Amino acid sequence: MKSIANLLFEIRILKDITRSGYTFLGSGTESIAEHSFVMAMICFVMARMETQIDREKLISMALVHDLAEARTGDLNYVHKRYCKSDEKKALGHLTDKIPFGRDMVDLVDEFNEGKTREACLARDADQISFIMELKKLSDTGAAGPERWLPIVMDRVQTGCGKQIVQTIMETSWDEWWADGYSE
Amino acid sequence: MKSIANLLFEIRILKDITRSGYTFLGSGTESIAEHSFVMAMICFVMARMETQIDREKLISMALVHDLAEARTGDLNYVHKRYCKSDEKKALGHLTDKIPFGRDMVDLVDEFNEGKTREACLARDADQISFIMELKKLSDTGAAGPERWLPIVMDRVQTGCGKQIVQTIMETSWDEWWADGYSE
Amino acid sequence: MKSIANLLFEIRILKDITRSGYTFLGSGTESIAEHSFVMAMICFVMARMETQIDREKLISMALVHDLAEARTGDLNYVHKRYCKSDEKKALGHLTDKIPFGRDMVDLVDEFNEGKTREACLARDADQISFIMELKKLSDTGAAGPERWLPIVMDRVQTGCGKQIVQTIMETSWDEWWADGYSE
Amino acid sequence: MKSIANLLFEIRILKDITRSGYTFLGSGTESIAEHSFVMAMICFVMARMETQIDREKLISMALVHDLAEARTGDLNYVHKRYCKSDEKKALGHLTDKIPFGRDMVDLVDEFNEGKTREACLARDADQISFIMELKKLSDTGAAGPERWLPIVMDRVQTGCGKQIVQTIMETSWDEWWADGYSE
Amino acid sequence: MKSIANLLFEIRILKDITRSGYTFLGSGTESIAEHSFVMAMICFVMARMETQIDREKLISMALVHDLAEARTGDLNYVHKRYCKSDEKKALGHLTDKIPFGRDMVDLVDEFNEGKTREACLARDADQISFIMELKKLSDTGAAGPERWLPIVMDRVQTGCGKQIVQTIMETSWDEWWADGYSE
Amino acid sequence: MKSIANLLFEIRILKDITRSGYTFLGSGTESIAEHSFVMAMICFVMARMETQIDREKLISMALVHDLAEARTGDLNYVHKRYCKSDEKKALGHLTDKIPFGRDMVDLVDEFNEGKTREACLARDADQISFIMELKKLSDTGAAGPERWLPIVMDRVQTGCGKQIVQTIMETSWDEWWADGYSE
Question: What pLDDT does C182 receive?
Answer without folding.
Answer: 87
